[in-house]
Amino acid sequence: MISLRWNITGSLVVVLLQLGYTAYTARAVDAHAYGAYAVTLTVVPFFGYFANAGLSACVLRSAHLTLPFVRAARRLGMVSGVVCFLLVEAVAPVFGSFFHMPDLTLMTRLLACVFLVQPSANVTVTAMRRAGAAPMAVLTETLGQTVGVATGAALLVCGWNPFGLALAQPVAAAVALAVGTAWTARRTLPDGPRVRARDLLAPSGFMTSHSLGQFVTNNIPLWASGRLLGAGAAGSYSRAFFFTGMLLTFLYQGINWAVTPLLAERRAEGLTGRDVRRTLCAASAVAFVGFGITAGIGPVVLRLLLGPGWESAVALVPVLSAGAAMTLLCYCGGLIDQVRSAPRALLGTLSATVVATAAGVAGAASARSLLLVAVAAAAGQLVGHVVQLAAWHRSGLMPAGAALRMHGVHLAVGTALGGAAALGAADRSPAVALGHGLFAMVPVVLGCVLLRRRIPAFTVAVATGLLGSRGPRTRRLPSSAATDPSDRC
């Protein structure tokens, strides 16, 4: 629980830091220049999946953390990072030519410096978490992010615009590696047997490939926007996607840290339909209610952050919020399939999502509509989740009808909250609109409180002990005769 609190607190600090950095760079870097940086942020991390090679996952899941294990992981990360760095430096001109963005080549080469330090930094910080030093790991990452953001902002102020953006991540990783290395040097890890590279790579190969597929799917819309609609369109799409993506990452990490250990424990006894229902119910509530609110109040917040000149990015927030909700459901469904060891289900969902997203984005880009590109991305994630529900229905884990009813209730709540916020904020200046939008949601919140027993997420929270029921106390039934309210989901 202490580890969870520290991780959530660290994520909140990083989110606030990134929001402040976003507000500054939106005023210091124009849309076309930021478009080149946005494309770079999707090209370079693609190679990062090979540079990191799933090493962090191996360290985190290791049964016994030994000194040879950590040293082998760091050496492998260093070697793979150097290889990826040299590869990206060689092919950077190809990307600049393909996207017709002159600044992209230098931007890519600068950002590729992150491979020289990030793989080893990730292994080191993960080893700190695995050793039970979550507070120190969070402080290390937060310090790195702070110094990196400050360095990027300072370079922009000094006139190295927009290329100063590309050095924030390498500096952040270098600081995290330095602090983490100093900590591990004072920490005595137990000795152990020699660890070979293939011992580290084999277990994480499948999940690395699956994560790479998700990364490609999420970035198809941005690549299509940059290639077919230009750097300005890519910059606008990236700003809006980054805004909803930060919230998506924060919510998904919270669910992952809370749910995955519980599902792993339940798997030893046999994963049941009730476990799946409760997990999906939590994800459904967070996705539809959270991003329903984001769709309503998010445009106002983004207007405040970015300032004038980013109207096209602000217009994308409602659609991208819907896409983020479906993405969160797909990701949480993937957690369930991972725990129940269903690689075919994972591949089926990923394949359906990739095909649907690529086909939809191709049609939208040919119509030269950035808004339709965002709609197509959301539709692709919807198809992926439908495939998940169909697989669970066939396997008997959860009836599709029950899942759809659950989604329907949470969608209605999220739509009501988002709609009230949008109506309250309409036709007002950003600062005034934010206050009016938040106040307009109050009646909907009160209505939800009165009707809370009809909301699936509330019944699950009561059943699992997250919330205490304030209803009249009755004689406790024997466990064999008790009815779990979450069964109504």
UniProtKB/TrEMBL annotation:
Signal peptide: none annotated. Keywords: Cell membrane, Membrane, Transmembrane, Transmembrane helix. It is a multi-pass membrane protein. Its main location: membrane. It is found in: Cell membrane. The chain crosses the membrane at residues 38-60, 81-100, 137-157, 163-185, 237-259, 280-306, 312-333, 345-365, 371-392, 404-425, 431-451. One of its GO terms (cellular component) is plasma membrane. It comes from the Bacteria. The keyword Transmembrane helix applies. This is O-antigen/teichoic acid export membrane protein. Pfam families: Polysacc_synt_3 (PF13440). The keyword Cell wall biogenesis/degradation does not apply.
